[in-house]
Amino acid sequence: MDDKKCKIFDKIKSYIKKSANKIKNEKPRLAHDIHERTYAGRLAYYLQIEIEKHKKKCISCEGIYVDVEYNKVNNDPKEFTYSDNNGTKDDSDFKELYDKLECIKNKFKKNDDKSSQNQITLDIPKIKIIPDILIHKRGSEDKNIAVIEVKKENSRDIFKNFDKIKLKTFKVSQKYQYTCAFYLEIREDCDFKVNESEELPTQ
After folding, report:
1. Rg of the chain (C-alpha set)
2. Full-model pTM
3. Helix (H) / strand (E) containing 166
4. Alpha-carbon distance 12 to 191, whole Å?
5. What are the tens digits of pLDDT across the range 52-88?
6. For residues 66 and 44, is the Cβ–Cβ distance under 8 A?
7. Looking at CB atoms within 10 Å, which of 28, 62, 161, 167 has the fewest?
8. Is residue 71 within 8 Å of residue 138, measured between CB atoms?
9. 54: how many CB neighbours lie within 10 A of its CB?
């Protein structure tokens, strides 16, 4: 990772930690049993405040927003595409993502968990992806700064692993090329864990 990307990575990491601390210090705190989307929404709110502070010092940050579950590129859906034969792979790690989805769906099928099965659709050669949080310029792929996934600490391991693979795919994708990706877990004390081994900067 070059010096410029390292600086961006370190800056976004510091914003995440500041924002997470603000959530932890809210009174009253968020209930631990609420949906993780609520945590993602609060995190995005505080991240936008940090970005706005930085905008005053950085002209290139103009037009940068923090959005929750932003699933579009202009009017098209965000998606990974993959060719399983001798064709070209648009996203080199798509097969790993697809295989993990297939594994999850098969596990639900084995447990007769129909409601969870219906949440996952496998449509080769494309899978539509909804990231938890994006720091980006809307309507453009020129400034894809960061993609963030948020999971509760007590979530199923299979979903945690899927989110990590999803982040990896966003990071290496030739279509999106996000500068950095972060995987966060929420502990019972409303603390966000950002583990060094789970931070995924673009190489």
Report:
1. 17
2. 0.78
3. helix 157-172
4. 18
5. 887 766 656 778 899 999 888 777 777 766 555 444 4
6. yes
7. 28
8. no
9. 13
